[in-house]
Amino acid sequence: MVLCPVIRKLQHQWVVLASASPRRREILSQTGLRFEVVPSRFKENLQKASFPTPHAYAVETAKQKALEVACRMHQKDLRTPDIVIGADTIVTVGGLILEKPVDKQDAYSMLSRLNGTEHSVFTGVAIVHCCSTDGRLHTEVTEFYEETRVRFSELSEELLREYIDSGEPTDKAGGYGIQALGGMLVESAHGDFLNVVGFPLNRFCRELTRLYYPPPREGPQQLTHDPLPALDTRDNLSDAEGGGSDAAQSQEACGGRAEAGGERTQAEGAQEAASNRTGDGPPPFPIGLLELIDGFKASKALFTACKLKVFDLLKDETPLRASEIASRFGAPRGGVAQLLDVCVALGLLEKTRRAYSNTDLASRHLVSDVEYSLHGLVMHHNDHTWNLFSHLERAILAGPGPGHTSLGDKATHLSQNSRDQSKEATLGLLRATHGLAKLTARQVATAFDLSWFTSACHLGGCTGALAHALAREYPRLQVTVFDLPEVLEHVACFQPEGRQTEQIRFLPGDFFTESLPDADLYVLSRILSDWEDDKVHELLSRISGSCKPGGGLLLVDTVWDEEGPENATVDEARRAARNGLRRALDGLVWPPRAQRSLAEYRRLLQRHGFRDVAETRAGDQLHVLLGTRPSPREAVPTRPLRGRLHCRDA
Ligand SMILES: Cc1cn([C@H]2C[C@H](O)[C@@H](COP(=O)(O)OP(=O)(O)OP(=O)(O)O)O2)c(=O)[nH]c1=O
After folding, report:
1. Closest approach atom of ligand 1 to CA 123
2. Which of 58, 200, 277, 509 has the smallest set of CB atoms within 10 Å of its CB?
3. Could you tell me which residues belong to the region Disordered (predicted)?
4. Which residues of 68-87 are buried (b: 16+ CB within 10 A; e: fewer)?
């Protein structure tokens, strides 16, 4: 069974695992992936001292293992696999890198070092996408590593000796196998268990997802090949010429030219095959740039498929042919079939025997009436954001000014007073925000333990997505959703059925002009970044004035100085950068928002009398702060303000 949708995307690719490790084979086959095993002949002898970190060494070794197999297969078979996966597992302790012990004595000294202490197990992984043009191998490498911290308990000499005699340490990094007898040595393990066993499966699936959604890479996907059996060990690919991986020979195959002298190392040969070529030839094909150039087309295809409700048509899981879908739209088959094929390429639809069905991703998020639907968000971007961005140049040249830009004028109707908006526009905006709010609601509700509060008031709580998550997590909590009457008149259609409904009430009102409902806990989610400082102070002082001693304020928002969590992985840092990019892009067409740093939000809470401010993250985009009110305080009288739609545009 294939649980990870991205694995399905690889089912027609020729995937090779460049490893002799039975553990890696077993772990990878658990995904349902069809792959072939071709053990690497790369000699694991890179200079450890030349790497800045132990994991850099593991990643490079993994890469060279995979590149060696890619080159050899290309040369010997004249058939190039689409993807070659290499991995290398090492154990590090006190700055030392431990690989597989060479003998019992070596195993003993490794295990003695690990005895009673904590060490790290790193597995470096390389996913090499290959393609062949004019007899030359071109590769694109994605690499990453995962760390697991393992602690051994204090072990007796006798136990270590017995363990070594069992023979288990021989083929395992650090001289132990956590998955078997070696599990008895381990007191604790923090991180991915499978990473210790030789392959970080979870991270691997996440990396594949990152690579294949959105649009799959063009190069490797254009290759065709015959389907191969799920598991087929082809250890013995070559060997008419006597095996061994000769660098010059493999260079000839990979680069289409022989290297006189043949003094180059295998690593160098494989490295060059990685197509980082410089010099006279054309520069490497800029896949990333072309994807960027074409990116808008992919978005528009998705928007159009959503507008036509293609994913709704396919939601009952009966695959339909292009002609059937076209006839439902009363449209000619040709264009519809093309759109459907684009959706297949984008990973939104699957095509089997000329019939189309939704991928898991589409079933979960693009069908309009499912729980975690983002259909409303897509429609909002199609109907509003798309037009705004077509005026981007004008917006930039006009620059910010009084009343913002001519584009800004157009834009403000999206985030302005909802009384000015048509009912349909308000509903569209609510659908867009509801989809996103639902996706993050549980993470926000559980960011802190709120079980000591008995009543909460979500100010500007819109459709109640967060209120429902709070009610679900805290069965004692009564939640009031306080929002403008013109917002609340539309929320009935967003309410799920269930027990939590009894814990939730919707109260119309304007949090700037009307008294706030009583509550132990006030919640503000993505509100403050819509307002400049004077309004923010006004609102916080009203909340502070209504908040009882011991009550709290839960503040949820994006922050401008986001760098990802402390000790962020490369992945997390990238995500943080992408969030920043999204905000920067929005800033080009919408009136600038009052983005604040985490420290500024913390100071705001403190200034308005909230103490012990704690902060954490909820998912990729949101930061959550919780402050409590130690003593009662008078509410500061406020000027009445115009009401507005308290939910962020998407
Ligand atoms: C720490 C630890 C390692 N190992 C294994 C995983 C790896 O197979 C091995 C480390 O050696 P590697 O050099 O990473 O891999 P390998 O030689 O087995 O296979 P190949 O190079 O062909 O890919 O140690 C366990 O099985 N259990 C453990 O607890």
Report:
1. 14
2. 277
3. 215-282
4. bbbbbbbbbeeebbbbbbbb
Q: Could you state, in order of their start, the residue ranges of all structural domains in the chain?
A: 4-212, 242-256+293-399, 402-649
Q: Which residues does 423 contact at the CB level (< 8 Å), separation at least 6? A: 490
The CA-to-CA distance between both ends of the chain, in Å, stands at 36
Residue closest to 494 by CA, chosen among 416, 419, 565, 436? 436
Q: What is the DSSP string of 382-399?
A: IIIIHHHHHTHHHHHHH-
Output the six-digit token pair for 489. Answer: 């008149």
CATH of domain 242-256+293-399: 1.10.10.10
Task: Quote the pLDDT of residue 134.
Answer: 76
Residues 170-216 have pLDDT tens digits of 999 999 999 999 999 999 999 999 999 999 999 999 999 888 875 54
Vertex 333 angle, CA 329 and 385, to 5°: 55
Atom number in ligand 1 closest to CA 174: 1
Q: What local confidence, expressed as pLDDT, does residue 291 receive?
A: 76
For residue 156, the Cα-to-chain-centroid distance in whole angstroms is 44
**Which CATH entry fits the domain spanning 402-649: 3.40.50.150, 3.30.390.50, 3.30.1390.10, 2.40.110.10?**
3.40.50.150
With a cut of 50, list the residues of the chain below it in pLDDT: 216-279, 401-419, 634-650
φ/ψ region of 460 (left if φ > 0, alpha if ψ in -120 to 50, else beta) reads: left
- Positions annotated as catalytic residues are 88
Cα(86) to centroid(ligand 1), Å = 12
Residue 361 CA: distances (Å) to CA of 350, 365, 374, 612: 11, 6, 11, 41
Structure-token pair, residue 440 = 């993050």
Nearest protein CA to atom 23 of ligand 1, as residue: 19
Give the strands of the sheet with 455-459, arranged side by side: 504-508, 478-483, 455-459, 521-525, 552-557, 622-628, 611-618
Nearest to 607 by CA among 528, 491, 514, 489: 528
User: Left if phi > 0, otherwise alpha if psi is -120 to 50, otherwise beta: which for 304?
Assistant: alpha
* pTM score: 0.52
Return the ligand 1 atom nearest residue 182 CA: 29
Kindly report the protein residue whose alpha carbon is nearest to atom 17 of ligand 1.
21
Residue-wise DSSP of 582-637: HHHHHHHHSPPP----HHHHHHHHHHTT-EEEEEEEETTTEEEEEEE--S--PPPP
Give ligand 1 pocket residues (Cβ under 6 A). 19-21, 23, 39-40, 44, 65, 87-89, 91, 100, 121, 171-174, 176-179, 182, 196-198
**pLDDT value of position 237:** 40
Q: Helix crossing, 54-77 with 247-255: angle to 10°?
A: 70
